[in-house]
Design goal:
The N terminus is likely disordered. The radius of gyration is 26 Å and the shape is elongated. The relative contact order is 0.11. The chain contains one helix and 37 strands. By secondary structure, the chain is mostly beta strands. It folds into three domains: 150 residues, Sandwich (Jelly Rolls); 151 residues, Galactose-binding domain-like (Jelly Rolls), CATH 2.60.120.260; 73 residues, Immunoglobulin-like (Sandwich).
Length: 414
Amino acid sequence: MKNFTLRLMFLVLPFLCFVTVNGQTWNISSDSFNSLGEIDSTVTIDGLTIFATPDKKVTVDENSKSLDGMDFTHRMKLGGSGTFDDAGAPVSRIIAFNVEGNTTITIMGMSSSSSSDRELIIAADSMNNEIGRFPALGSPISKGVFHYEGEAATIYLFSPSSGVNLYYIKAAPTIPDEQSWNISDDNFNSLGEIDTTVTVNGLTIYASSASKVTVDENSKSLDDMEFTHRLKLGGSGSFGEDGMPAARVVAFNVPASSKITVIGMSSSSSSDRVLIIAADSMNNEIGRFNALGSPISKGEFEYTGDKEATIYMFSESSGINLYYIKAEPLTTSIKPLEANEESINIYPNPATDKVYFKISKPTQVGLYNLAGSLLKQKMIESENDYMNVSDLSNGIYLLRSIDNNSFAKKLIIQ
């Protein structure tokens, strides 16, 4: 028996839409659907099966509506209640699609009557195995989000009575609250040369025959983790004219408000490079990871949006090697730690050009902005050592040990 949970988010006000790495979407206004007209026999379009018969047709016609920043020109009219045969197989006025496992299902639609609210049943594998009901309002168009939990299944959408109009359906793998990808794990370490886009455990690696990504052996250690392999981006990331990633880009989905950790380094031991972390668009940067030529280092970044997003990671120029990526719920920003506070002091604070350190032992120190992005790092070996901060904007920053959690201190630059 499959287990199901339901979370319904019912919204009538528009909010930002986003692009996902995985999943299926069916927009009735798209060319694949908008010319179907009257459907009197079962058809499958792009993985969406529409069950219809001559006496119980489904119709696609023009109808303008807007929601979530999307403008619709057409709708799919179910025309009445869905019907199943005596064996429980779908017959007419039913929409069906397959899912591979835990899936988030998004529906945009409304009642076919402006004066009567109706319902759309969402069921898995059987008309009686409901996972939720979408309230199809008479006015306005609205959205429902439902969560299926279980193994591979066929999802059915149908009205229990009277007509419902559909404008948009999406089925995307449910995003776990916490995800991590270690390139040394078996799922990654045997990939070798990647010349086409692949998805491994929710991490999508965009590659092409002309812009390959490679996984090979390379031993490094950081944060008590021993790495045996690395993911070599090999060069700058590329995106198509539509803004979608093409090659040498790594992508994954995150829920709202997530902390993202990256461990990596430049592919050149003599040249520091930069890995861009962006949300939903290559231009919507949330941070930049300084990929040092040496040593391997870690960066932490915050996505603070209130909706799930697709995170893109790519080099702005030249190769970068990745060893580990983690996405987890964001609770609070980085805060100063209490442990061993007496072991290090910084001065002057506020600072304008240089920050000096009073330390009890050599320490690898990183300077972060409040979003958690690593901006600078340096091995501080004596009280005469300093970090140059003259190139940074006025504001509040954090100085923190990189190799362990021995200290973190607030620094003001003015």
